[in-house]
Design brief:
Length: 83
């Protein structure tokens, strides 16, 4: 799990080892990171990108309330805003 800050932009990425996939680990870890980032870093929004064929990452983004923004090449772009 990685949270990268650049100016007023925040981007997140994650990777789960093959033997641990399918147990909701990425979803739970991402939610915890987002909660912490919103509280401790006062993040307004976080961006996430995944390959168009990565269905698992797409599901994690959807479960964590990211909104699909569109395609950029072979990537899907998502954003979650904190109000």
């Amino acid at each position: 799990m990685e949270l990268r800050l650049s100016g007023d932009e925040a981007n997140v990425s994650y990777l789960v080892a093959a033997e641990l996939r399918g147990h909701g680990l990425a979803t739970h870890a991402l939610e915890a990171l987002l909660t912490w980032g919103a509280r401790e870093l006062a993040l307004d929004q976080v961006n996430l990108a995944c390959h168009v064929e990565n269905v698992a990452s797409r599901r994690v983004a959807e479960k964590c309330k990211f909104v699909f923004l569109g395609y950029e090449g072979d990537e899907l772009k998502f954003r979650r805003e904190f109000l």
